[in-house]
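$ ./design --mode recover --in tokens.txt
reading tokens...
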């Protein structure tokens, strides 16, 4: 038993760039493409976007949208199905989308920024934030979709607050509620990353990666290619050592860049991170 445990730990900390040794959730075919709709400089439509994602070898998309994309929700779903791509997650909620989820029998995660906290005490803030999130949590549950509280800075971006609201909503009967955590909103938790990740891990629905430098969010470097930062390699190593096997996302999130190029850069950067740990 001891020998098997030591072998397991060695594999975790000694991963290499060889696809056979990279954990399955970090391999290209398992990754989730995020922030590739309104942030794509080429402004692709549904078919072109699906073709782009497929060409990269990615098979899951978290769909972010703006008002102008509402008329093409159905076209997006059909394009993904044509190219064997899963609509893994959907940003916020919209009744047109929920109707289409039912029509096509799909159940993407629903992601929403944790907000709505009011009051002076922590308990008041947790309760009011849960109140604000509950309608979409309820609607997501009715559609058979997991609901992810998304960190986006401020009170709602604190791991302890994400956990507290998640647990409150579960207490209210919404057991499908979890957390979506983003490296590009984690700059305030670099020093206590291991502790923060240990806390959110049991509730994680998806972990979105990014290049990280200390205080990068305050220095115009909030969004960096994976492998170009100084912190993400150690953070990723900690994620693996903690045994996280859930979904992993990579993102574009730059208005000025072609999403195909940015996603490829992140794929290459992720390979570089694993190669450095060889």
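writing sequence...
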């Amino acid at each position: 038993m001891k020998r098997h445990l030591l072998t397991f730990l060695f594999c975790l900390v000694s991963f290499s760039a060889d696809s056979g040794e990279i954990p399955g959730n970090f391999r290209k075919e398992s990754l989730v493409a995020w922030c590739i709709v309104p942030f794509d400089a080429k402004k692709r439509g549904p078919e072109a976007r699906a073709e782009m994602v497929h060409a990269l070898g990615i098979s899951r998309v978290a769909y972010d949208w703006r008002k102008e994309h509402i008329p093409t929700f159905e076209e997006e779903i059909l394009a993904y199905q044509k190219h064997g791509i899963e609509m893994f997650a959907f940003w916020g909620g919209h009744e047109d989308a929920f109707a289409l989820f039912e029509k096509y029998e799909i159940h993407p995660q629903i992601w929403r920024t944790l907000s709505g906290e009011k009051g002076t005490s922590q308990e008041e803030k947790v309760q009011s934030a849960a109140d604000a999130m509950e309608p979409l949590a309820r609607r997501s549950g009715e559609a058979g979709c997991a609901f992810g509280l998304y960190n986006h800075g401020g009170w709602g971006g604190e791991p302890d607050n994400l956990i507290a609201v998640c647990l409150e909503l579960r207490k209210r009967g919404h057991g499908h509620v979890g957390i979506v955590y983003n490296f590009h909103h984690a700059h305030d938790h670099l020093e206590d990353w291991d502790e923060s990740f240990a806390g959110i891990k049991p509730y994680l629905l998806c972990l979105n990666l990014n290049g990280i430098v200390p205080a990068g969010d305050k220095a115009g470097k909030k969004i960096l290619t994976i492998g170009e930062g100084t912190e993400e390699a150690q953070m990723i190593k900690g994620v693996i050592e903690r045994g996280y096997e859930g979904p992993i996302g990579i993102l574009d999130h730059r208005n000025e860049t072609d999403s195909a190029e940015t996603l490829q850069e992140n794929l290459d950067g992720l390979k570089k991170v694993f190669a450095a740990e060889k």
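exit 0
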